[in-house]
Structures are given as structure tokens and as C-alpha cells.
Amino acid sequence: MQHRTPSSGQQILLKRVHASQHFQNTQVMVNPAGTEKMSEVIFRFVEPFKDDDGLVSKGMLEIAIIIWNASFMPSDMQRKALEDVVNVLPSDDSEARRDMFFIVNMLLERKRQYFSNNKRMIMDYHITGSAHSIHVDVVSTVPEGYDPE
To answer: At what angle do helices 94-114 and 75-87 cross, to 10 degrees?
Structure first.
């Protein structure tokens, strides 16, 4: 009987990138030298939303990634994207919608205040988690002017 080790999040992302029509002529670099890991950046970005065990939910990580990318949009497109995030919630749940609006705006402010120099877009991600840990693998653009040499 053969046992297959489960694919890592990184392997899953690499397969998706290679299979995608959007990335046909794209060079993929795994952990490019001299660049900060975007997965670590995202964890710092959502730090205020950690629970008592120091974990962030998968849903919160997904919202954070959406808001991170929306922060690069022109203001009218950004406003529409943020409305779309809030509008996922039922229209009759005004408290949840208010909470989401607060979260979205807090994340945008964190991006402006603490991460304004980071212009890297998140192209894809894979989140795995258990009761005691959560792990994010990220495919992102490299920093502007990045030179691997």
C-alpha cells in the first residue's frame, strides 16, 4: 500500500500558477532572496484580530488579503470592492454589517499607517489550519525594482 504525503500549500500554489492561463509567461521565484515573506506580512497585518490563543481565523485572513489588494485600487474602485465585502453579509444583519465595515476600515488604515511602502499584490494564496495553528502560503508580486542578482 502506498502512502502519499499531502501536498504542501506551496506545492498546491505552484501547481495552480503553472496551470493558470493568467500566469503563462510569468517567472515564479520561491522566497526570493532579500524579500520579506508576504505570508509573514499578512500575519502582522491582521495582528489586532488574533484570538486569545494568538490565532487568526481563516475568514479573517481571507478578508485581510482582499483588503490588502483593494488598497491598491483607485478610490472609487476601492469603495466598490469594500462595499462588496460588507454586502456579503445578510442585509437584515445591521450589526454584522457595521462590524465588517469597521474591520474593513481598520485594515485599510493599518495598510496606510504601517505597510504603505509595501506595494506587493497578492496573486493567490492557500490557507491550511488546525485547532492549534494556521498557515498561509502566498504568491505575490516581487517588490518594484527587484533585482535577483
So the answer is: 140
d(CA 5, CA 76): 46
Instruction: Report the C-alpha gap between 53 and 60 in whole angstroms.
Output: 15
Let me know: does 68 contact 136? Beta carbons within 8 Å: no
- CA-to-CA distance for 68 and 120, rounded, in angstroms? 9
For 77-100, what is each residue's pLDDT tens digit? 998 988 998 989 999 999 999 999
pTM of structure: 0.82
Contact 70, 55 (CB under 8 A): no
Each residue's pLDDT tens digit, 113-135: 999 999 998 988 999 887 788 98
Is the Cβ–Cβ distance between 85 and 100 less than 8 Å?
A: yes
